[in-house]
Amino acid sequence: MSKFGVLPPWLVLDPLLHGWLLEDIGRGDRTTNSLLAKDVTPGTAKWIAKAPGIIAGLPVAARVFQLLNEKVSFVPMTNEGASCEQGQVVAEIHGSLDALLMGERVALNLAMRLSGIATLTNIYVEQIADLPAQLVDTRKTTPGLRLLEKYATTVGGAINHRMGLDDAVMIKDNHIAAAGGIGEAITRIRSQIPYPLTIEVETETLEQVKEALEHKADIIMLDNMPLDMMSQAVQMIREQYSHIKIEASGNVTLDTIRAVAQTGVDYISSSAPITQSKWLDLSMKIPLA
Fold first, then answer.
1. Mind listing the pLDDT tens digit for each residue in 35-75?
2. Active-site residue numbers?
């Protein structure tokens, strides 16, 4: 499991967290504000895992509470990226009860979503842990949550593909159709992009692989290829240009990912760890006064 997930700086994340808190709190927490004066009543809460999984998002959850009250202390009881068991206390929170209650839902929602992604990602990664191929994520993310969802895949052991359209050039089937062919697309794009951006080309046939090689693509994606064709494509690429990186993509599942890795590709991209993950159930409990 990767321990190298790196969150974007708070300068980037804080506006998102502010927006999500505003969405939930609106003009004010009617319940909490009617019960408690602001920043007066101290309290303690525990976060408890209601299912086993991989924990992700604790630093984000801590930040949510601290944006409401900077004096809140959020103490992880397990490491980010560690496994948890059902019933395990994963964090303790100390501070003003009004902040704890107002931040509860947003903080839990984010941690549950991210932990669910990390958990499923890790299951995929374990399927190919003894092979050289690496699992990468995709741009199939929830609008507004991409930075955090992609962070969660790294906590689960994957590596990030491009964050957005400005990160790298990826010539997909519709780009090829719009340009009139792979060669035309590579030639036109290469004349306009800045150094050192790389060019990746999506291919679906051995003929397209040959064309991508002829025009010196930096990365070749083998998209939705049968395993035997994928193996032939890998062999063709390795024989001609051993430095070119090879990515496999398309309908990768837990049942197929190992066979795909065994073809010799460098990377396997899949949206499943994000799009098919279930939230890891966590709850917050405040002892009865």
1. 999 999 999 999 999 999 999 999 999 999 999 999 999 99
2. 105, 140, 172, 202, 223
Closest by CA to 263, choosing from 240, 238, 232, 236, is: 232
Reference 284, options 130, 124, 137, 72; nearest CA is 72
* Residue-wise burial string across 252-271, b where 16 or more C-beta atoms lie within 10 A, e elsewhere: beeebbbebbebbbbbbbbb
Closest CA to 275 of 120, 154, 160, 100: 120
E-strand ranges in the chain read: 42-49, 53-54, 73-76, 83-84, 89-96, 134-136, 169-171, 199-203, 219-223, 245-249, 267-269, 282-285
| pLDDT tens, residue by residue, 102-156 | 999 999 999 999 999 999 999 999 999 999 999 999 999 999 999 999 999 999 9
